[in-house]
Amino acid sequence: MNDLSRLPNSDLLEQFNAVRAHTRALVAPLSAEDCAAQSMPDASPAKWHLGHTTWFFETFVLAAHEPGFAPFRPEFRVLFNSYYHAIGERHPRPQRGLLTRPSLEEVMQYRADVDHRMQALMAHADEATPWMPLVTLGLQHEQQHQELLLTDIKHLLSCNPMWPAYTDQVTPAQAATAPVPAWQAFKGGLIEIGHQGTGFAFDNESPCHKVYLAPFELSSRLVSNAEYARFIEEGGYEDSSLWLAEGWDWRASQDLSHPIYWQPRPDGGWDEFTLSGRQALDLAKPALHLSYYESDAYARWAGARLPTEAEWEHAMSSGVPSTKWESDQWIGHAWQWTQSSYAPYPGFRIAEGAVGEYNGKFMVNQYVLRGSSVATPAGHARLSYRNFFPATARWQFSGIRLARHT
Amino acid sequence: MNDLSRLPNSDLLEQFNAVRAHTRALVAPLSAEDCAAQSMPDASPAKWHLGHTTWFFETFVLAAHEPGFAPFRPEFRVLFNSYYHAIGERHPRPQRGLLTRPSLEEVMQYRADVDHRMQALMAHADEATPWMPLVTLGLQHEQQHQELLLTDIKHLLSCNPMWPAYTDQVTPAQAATAPVPAWQAFKGGLIEIGHQGTGFAFDNESPCHKVYLAPFELSSRLVSNAEYARFIEEGGYEDSSLWLAEGWDWRASQDLSHPIYWQPRPDGGWDEFTLSGRQALDLAKPALHLSYYESDAYARWAGARLPTEAEWEHAMSSGVPSTKWESDQWIGHAWQWTQSSYAPYPGFRIAEGAVGEYNGKFMVNQYVLRGSSVATPAGHARLSYRNFFPATARWQFSGIRLARHT
Amino acid sequence: MNDLSRLPNSDLLEQFNAVRAHTRALVAPLSAEDCAAQSMPDASPAKWHLGHTTWFFETFVLAAHEPGFAPFRPEFRVLFNSYYHAIGERHPRPQRGLLTRPSLEEVMQYRADVDHRMQALMAHADEATPWMPLVTLGLQHEQQHQELLLTDIKHLLSCNPMWPAYTDQVTPAQAATAPVPAWQAFKGGLIEIGHQGTGFAFDNESPCHKVYLAPFELSSRLVSNAEYARFIEEGGYEDSSLWLAEGWDWRASQDLSHPIYWQPRPDGGWDEFTLSGRQALDLAKPALHLSYYESDAYARWAGARLPTEAEWEHAMSSGVPSTKWESDQWIGHAWQWTQSSYAPYPGFRIAEGAVGEYNGKFMVNQYVLRGSSVATPAGHARLSYRNFFPATARWQFSGIRLARHT
Amino acid sequence: MNDLSRLPNSDLLEQFNAVRAHTRALVAPLSAEDCAAQSMPDASPAKWHLGHTTWFFETFVLAAHEPGFAPFRPEFRVLFNSYYHAIGERHPRPQRGLLTRPSLEEVMQYRADVDHRMQALMAHADEATPWMPLVTLGLQHEQQHQELLLTDIKHLLSCNPMWPAYTDQVTPAQAATAPVPAWQAFKGGLIEIGHQGTGFAFDNESPCHKVYLAPFELSSRLVSNAEYARFIEEGGYEDSSLWLAEGWDWRASQDLSHPIYWQPRPDGGWDEFTLSGRQALDLAKPALHLSYYESDAYARWAGARLPTEAEWEHAMSSGVPSTKWESDQWIGHAWQWTQSSYAPYPGFRIAEGAVGEYNGKFMVNQYVLRGSSVATPAGHARLSYRNFFPATARWQFSGIRLARHT
Questions:
Q1: Do A269 and A379 fall within a single domain?
Q2: Are residues C206 and C351 in the same domain?
Q3: Which of D145, D153, D152, D120 is nearest to D54 (CA)?
Q4: What is the pLDDT of residue B10?
């Protein structure tokens, strides 16, 4: 798939079909039972992701612009609303796993019906059609849910003591060891971050604005599983001086001693739960599924710190990665925690109407992650992209890039 | 189906097939999704009931007595263990709804496989075979789970804001009003309760023992929906003096103002969630799905009290019901709360081995219910049968029979 | 102090002064700070006990019968109401420890003022005065709070890591070992329990009624610390088969491995927190401060069971204890858990008015304890006395008498 | 009291005596009972503040530098440790209110003893003595606890339904209305924030560093009670679109409809709980005791936003307040929430040793407040001072200054 952010509107129908098909492909390996369960309040059933992404198009495009609009099923307006107060009632999030009806089959019919009507509507639209940006937003939104669908399914399957596999495919092992990381220096100064140009971006990436950076260094690659295993072996989870106070209390209250999907093996090594089921931990790969607290503690142990989001974006926009492998370490392997709390950029303005609830109202007690992960749809991420999660989130494909002052 | 408790062992195979078929029939109207979800920690998914009742035969009969026994799937020993510490590890009860694997289909294969092997084993057994009583126990156990499966599915479907139906069949309405209840007097004295004879009974029904009863009266029928509605309309849920202190705090903490499956209608009447979906409340029928706290408060409001289990059993064994309608009010409509806490009978002895965990270890902070309900399999209940639930339980088919001193 | 229950009314004033003085004596060793703190929602500050027992006389006697009554301070009507809904608002129980005002000094003035007015009122009353029984009830009520005051202070001081002492006095050690217990046999039959005669008794002890008992045996003494220590050493807290299911979950959730006031010593023995501070555990004394769950598990481990309250009362009224030492094992050392849930006696009627809230509304999910303890005021207990607490209660002076069937 | 941050070390002894005496003066109106209670886990008893501030000098100065040091009482090392893991065990914070021993009197003796020994030690020290900066840190630390002592006592007394007063003194009413606020414009650019010069500052105020600011405007005064009351009257607590999502859920879960110390009057106006007890709300005064969530919602309602901490510091250092009244609106009335999360400044380094736990480990999920309040000791605050609390904190003397982009 190409980068959606650079598409002319005339190709949007083709993109619509591609993104919608990709979501269907993601659930192809899953049973109706797999799609219905919810492993924790923070996660949603795959069936709910399927319905909600369809609800977005039905609610924000069809209901407003389709001649003679009638809802596929009126109850879905409530069932598949995520958090839009302006749209009205919502089904309580922690109870999404109890919606055994509508069935997966009916939700797939809902998808097909809305696809069909969207295709008909879009056939008569062009770049100047006022609601076409809402279609783009809907596709970006669906891509976000594609990643969430994978994170949520991975968490659900991990709760099954049999650790069943989502897919038979196993990711090929990496080189035996990751290359030695290098510190890459940046002199900082008055730089700019934020979305530029005419392509798509979420409202939270704007406006582009100036930031002053002191000189800094970033590691040339992500922290590897081997390195994180050493942090554990050397007592990282038992030494309170490495942790933020709140992180230490969180760790202690749940008695955590390793990442969420790791399990110690009798031989002293580690197994890992993956989308391909139980596997020996690949030591050369970047460590994944780490919370902010774990990432921050690791950084302190390593004599370093997490980068700010401005440092990350500046480094990445300076053309740092010079090889495909390096590039993958920035975009495409792990979301990288920054020490920047999720906050509005100077001059940020919330969009009018219900879609204005998209981003701004979450700007408290969350931390920005940059880059993208193995679970991010191709073409979805951008240099200026701002992902965000609370400091406790462990089930995302999140890892660590180290920074330090010079 | 006939009364299992009166069966000669030689008919046990036929009964085995009938009980096992009945469980399958109960899930026939349900999708795989319906069978996988768990609406609260107290309830279990239908699929888990299907697996656990099968696990009972595999664990307690086949594993011990089948030549060359091999488990259908070793993981099931943990997944489908309910609370038998002696059998080893158990999957945590509140997470049964996350077991999307094994699939419903695989669990049905598990059932078929165990049925086939049980049939083979039983073909060579007779009344003298030492493990035949375990088969009877397993069938009684499965019948208990048949009722739980219905209570749990009803609760699950009620959590769906669309109130979907389990079945298209609607129970025919009763007569417009229930007959006026009469007080039936018993002179008491030194009587006996507990299981007598050679038929099957659970260990908690023994030994048969003497109890002294003061004279008492019982109502000739169950409290009706119309009567319970009047309790609500006259402020029963707002008057603390009617409630046990703990019941009042429970009511207040959840802001309860009516039974779990009732919903006020705009016209001032009540709708009720049933296995046939949303229905107008049938005022002539016995009130159902009441907690001990609600039942006790109602009785106090009515100037009466709940019976003891000895009073109930003595009245019933005195041949009280003289018509089919009256009889249904005792056995077959609603489990009837008694004020008797669930405790061992004098001389009660726990069975040896793992099945000894069946009843005794639950004898604290629960109250005995007598009779049986519309959801109880035909032939399962007995005069001496002791059902039990905590005082907060609202999702069972439980109702109220009034008593008073004379 | 003599037995209140046998007093002629003409001596009531003298008794009033004695009981009220005893309460003051109990708090004499305590500072204002000690009296203000609340260690858990189940406990109350000593200052609150002082105020509440005074509030009882002010509310139920003075407010109704004193000419020209004016409250000492109107706010106290709410602050010192425990659970009487009929009296109106109550200060939330878990926040009693936040009432730093009124000061202890002001509460003592409140006591003195109410005492003075009660004395004046009682000077003109005699046995026929209708409210004199309320004075007796108030004194019995105050004696109950005298014991609670000690249990609550003991718990509070135990929460201080310095384990400070309530008193300098140390109870003299017992004989090196307790005498070997004997099983005392009772043939049972149709017996009577409940309050008889004209002395004072709480409503929950009536009516006197017939109960049928199968033959049984009771141990001649309470379980000793030495015996309970052996239960621990032999794995009693690690063996789920000894525990009620709910008790085991409770034990596990709090990771309990010994009684609440015991602490293992480095030498393998036990220290105990007492009202005299930290002491070596006196092995010959009865084990104290045990919950129902712990008592029940111990009994199962010992191949016995807990008695019913009817068995206990029948044995005691049969004149069993033949020596002072034996008698103390029944009345005066430890409240003894029975397996009887706290329920109304046949024909029990709640008193009219606010004092009707005294007992009946607590008759659910609690278990009856019989006897009395080292903390019970002299003369307060009776053969028919029914104390009651939830199965989790550990901070009361509660112990174990074993029973068994014959 | 003068500004501590500008003191030559030679005056430190005088300052030591002044700060220590001021703490004693703060508790003078309180009883021992008042000083012992803890109203919530976030607050501490006054007695604990008295002990902990003394423990700081005993632990970090005397223990290390006093010849022949012996602790006043060894147990205090644990009891009065707040959060210093490096010092060892700590008494659990939520149980500080259970420490009825040591008594207030003993804690005052502890203070006097440590004061005496500190005075003796300081008599022989001068500016070059290596541990003198620890004395300064201890005094700054004690001043922080002086404010906390007042916030915690205010919260405790507010939990008493009688709303008792801390002091008889009543703050004189303000002018009938606050002056009309003006927007003061700043052109921004590359500016500097952070501590400069040689006076005392906490580690979190360093290093001084460059920040780029877009042009912005700040309100000339704090939001008044009258303005905040209008926000309530116009539905501010019922309109989810004004709130951060997490703030809205927090508000709803506690059913909040006004600031913590406000109470509606029957006449439609507001009363307020103050340190002088219940008072009519002074409409002209700045609104106080607001959480971040409430402040942020108010700002959105007012068409504005909260400032960043860099904007605040830059404006204040630009010499903005031109009158005493204006100045008080910046420093001395209310801590002002900023939208800046509490994070390390570029190049921040944690101090060596136990005092390194002072600030850095709290840098997550908290928001910076600037200025100071009516409860801040004179001379304690600075331009670069960074106070911080979680977004839910309501019991601090915190208010709102509005900002907007230009």
A1: yes
A2: yes
A3: D145
A4: 57
- Cβ distance of B343 and C343 shorter than 8 Å: no
The CA-to-CA distance between both ends of chain B, in Å, stands at 40
- Say if C55 falls within a structural domain: yes
Counting Cα atoms < 13 Å in the Cβ hemisphere of B41 gives: 4
**B contacts of A35 (beta carbons < 8 Å):** 33
**pLDDT at position C85 over 80:** yes
Residue in C35, C97, C161 nearest the CB of D91: C161
Are D129 and D190 in the same domain?
A: no
Residue A320: the pLDDT is 67
Output the domain CATH number for residue D256. Answer: 3.90.1580.10
Can chain D be said to touch chain A, i.e. do they have 3 or more Cβ pairs within 8 angstroms? yes
Residue A122 has pLDDT above 70, yes or no: yes
CB contact under 8 A, D362 and A190: no
Q: Do D211 and A212 touch (CB under 8 A)?
A: yes
Is D11 within 8 Å of D3 (Cβ atoms)? no
- The pTM of the full predicted model, rounded to 2 decimals, is 0.95
Beta carbons within 10 angstroms of residue A105's beta carbon: 11
Substitution target from D248, D306, D361, D366 for chain A, most A beta carbons within 10 A: D361
Rounded Cα–Cα distance for residues D62 and D68 (Å): 10
**ipTM for this model:** 0.94
Residues B205 and B321 reside in one and the same domain = yes
Q: Return the top range by mean pLDDT from A131-135, C44-48, D166-170.
A: C44-48
How high is the pLDDT of residue C61? 97
Nearest CA in chain B to A34: B100
Q: What residue numbers bound the domain in which D69 lies?
A: 4-158
Quote the percentage of chain C above a pLDDT of 70: 96
| Residue C252: predicted pLDDT | 96
- Judged by average pLDDT, the poorest of A247-256, A269-278, B174-183, B275-284 is B174-183
In a domain, residue D122? The reply is yes
User: Average pLDDT for consecutive 10-residue bins of chain B (406 residues)?
Assistant: 42 95 98 98 97 97 96 95 85 93 98 98 89 94 98 98 92 75 95 93 95 97 97 97 96 97 96 96 96 98 98 89 76 95 94 77 97 96 96 98 94
Place of tokens 């089921």: A277
Residues of B in contact with C191 (CB under 8 A): none
Q: Domain check: are A311 and A350 in the same one?
A: yes
Q: What is the DSSP code string of B80-103?
A: T--S-GGG-----GGGGGG---S-
Residues of A in contact with B160 (CB under 8 A): 98-101
DSSP B224: B
| Interface contact D156-C98, CB threshold 8 A | yes
Integer Cα distance of B81 and B91 in angstroms: 7
D154 and D189 share one domain: no
Q: What integer pLDDT is reported at residue C174 of this predicted model?
A: 62
Residue from the list B33, B157, B162 with its beta carbon closest to the beta carbon of A103: B33
User: C98 is written with which tokens?
Assistant: 């936040």
Instruction: Enumerate the H helices of C159-236 as residue ranges.
Output: 225-233
User: Is residue C225 domain-shared with residue C372, that is, in the same domain?
Assistant: yes
Please, which residues bridge with residue C286 across strands?
Answer: C224
Q: Taking 80 as the threshold, does the pLDDT of residue D251 lie above it?
A: yes
Interchain contact, D339 vs A344, CB within 8 Å: yes
What mean pLDDT value characterizes chain C?
93
Number of domains in chain D: 2
Q: Do D126 and D193 share a domain, yes or no?
A: no
Contact C241 B86 (CB under 8 A): yes
In a domain, A191, yes or no: yes
With beta carbons less than 8 A apart as the criterion, state whether A22 and A1 touch.
Answer: yes
Is B173 part of any domain? Answer: no
- Tell me whether residues C241 and B347 touch, CB distance under 8 A: no
Residue type, D364: V
- Average pLDDT, stretch A243-249? 97
Q: CATH no. for residue A55?
A: 1.20.120
Mark yes or no for CB contact D292/A364 under 8 Å. Answer: yes
Chain C residues touching D35 at Cβ < 8 A = 33
List residues of chain D with CB under 8 Å from any CB of chain C: 31-37, 39, 75, 78-79, 91, 95, 97-101, 103-104, 156-157, 159-162, 164
